[in-house]
Specification:
It contains 13 helices and nine strands. It has 339 residues and is an alpha+beta fold. The strands form three sheets. A five-stranded antiparallel β-sheet has the order 1-2-3-5-4, with helices on one face. Strand 2 and strand 3 form a beta hairpin. Helix 5 runs antiparallel to helix 7 (159-173), helix 6 (144-154) crosses helix 13 and helix 7 (159-173) packs antiparallel against helix 12 (311-317).
Length: 339
């Protein structure tokens, strides 16, 4: 295997940024890392997504081109090596919505309004040619809550309960497959949105981390941004933003709210499983600290009538994340191989 540092140096040299100073910006739940490069007073972001660790930058490139084509602020791509997994992209800065709201709570409502307006615009555009986030796929990833969280919490997976959950969740989601899809970014939340006040209109919202985008229901990214796993969005803002979307999109309110609740349950069960897996299989215990908030979103979904057939299975099979269970998950960190 070629030395990753040499590949990186060659890519930067070929892009004209070989002499740039470099500073780590962030890693994420994947194997990607991001560095800020500075050269002659200008900056760029280097995305390093190693293919030998399962990463592929081509979806990011494709979705970036689409988002920019419909007038949204995805970062411009200045250089790419899709074979080796390097991209040189526009630096949108550090003004993440999450940081701005933490510093000034009064900014929560206006920033979320801007985020909802981006979704409304995006959902009016003709979607690109992407795979469908359909009932089968959504059910499979929701089952990660059994495969990883239940296994870590109680020591094994209850196969009968998992099968019953699979049946109930698929039956609830399957009717959505007949509805007209839109692009769903799937990680649309306050730590992936950057405020760009020097721009105007919708372009003031910078977009990140959308390489896993698929085609799905319009309520999905609304759930993603309002039922955030990483920060508490006030109930008042959640209510007003759902109302704002419904009014502007001219959808049928009761049916849309039911779907919003169902997709919130599906999404947060998936996240529960993913966070447990990141600890148990990949040695990232800090994700366990986010589980209580995710569990709160799950409880919200379970209490909705749309979850009538799902709730009994989940409440019986998946234990609440008590401090004892959370500590047990951390104690097992990186003890279960990734299948």
């Amino acid at each position: 295997m070629l030395d990753r540092a040499k590949l990186r140096a060659g890519f930067l040299q070929g892009s004209g940024w070989g002499e740039a100073a470099s500073e780590l910006v962030a890693g994420d739940a994947s194997n990607r890392r991001y560095d800020r490069l500075t050269l002659d007073g200008e900056t760029r972001i280097l995305m390093d997504a190693p293919p030998h660790k399962g990463e592929d930058v081509r979806p990011f490139v494709n979705v970036t081109n689409y988002l920019r084509s419909v007038g949204l602020s995805a970062p411009q791509i200045y250089g790419e090596d899709t074979t080796q997994g390097f991209l040189l992209i526009e630096d949108l800065g550090d003004d993440l919505f999450a940081r701005l709201i933490t510093a000034d709570k009064s900014r929560e409502a206006p920033l979320y309004k801007a985020a909802i307006d981006v979704l409304l615009h995006l959902h009016m555009a003709a979607p690109p040619d992407l795979a469908r986030y359909n009932a089968r796929f959504m059910t499979d990833v929701a089952c990660l809550s059994f495969d990883w969280y239940q296994r870590g919490a109680v020591g094994s997976v209850d196969a009968d309960a998992r099968a019953a959950f699979d049946t109930a969740m698929y039956a609830a989601l399957e009717p959505l497959d007949s509805e007209k899809p839109v692009l769903v970014q799937r990680d649309y939340h306050a730590e992936n949105l950057i405020w760009l006040p020097e721009r105007s209109g919708l372009k003031r919202v910078g977009l990140l981390d959308y390489q896993d985008a698929m085609l799905g229901h319009p309520a999905y990214d609304l759930v993603s941004v309002l039922q955030d796993a990483r920060r508490d969005v006030s109930l008042d803002v959640q209510t007003k933003m759902v109302d704002r979307y419904i009014a502007a999109a001219n959808v049928e309110p009761p049916a849309f709210r039911d779907t919003y609740a169902l997709l919130g349950l599906q999404r947060n069960l998936r996240i529960l499983g993913v966070f447990a897996r990141l600890c148990l299989a990949r040695g990232k215990p800090h994700y366990i600290d986010l589980i209580p908030r995710v569990w709160g979103h799950i409880e919200t979904g379970l209490s909705h009538p749309v979850a009538t057939d799902i709730a009994p299975v989940v409440r019986t099979a998946l234990p609440a994340p008590t401090p004892t269970i959370l500590q047990s998950l951390k104690n097992q960190c990186q003890t279960i191989p990734q299948p």
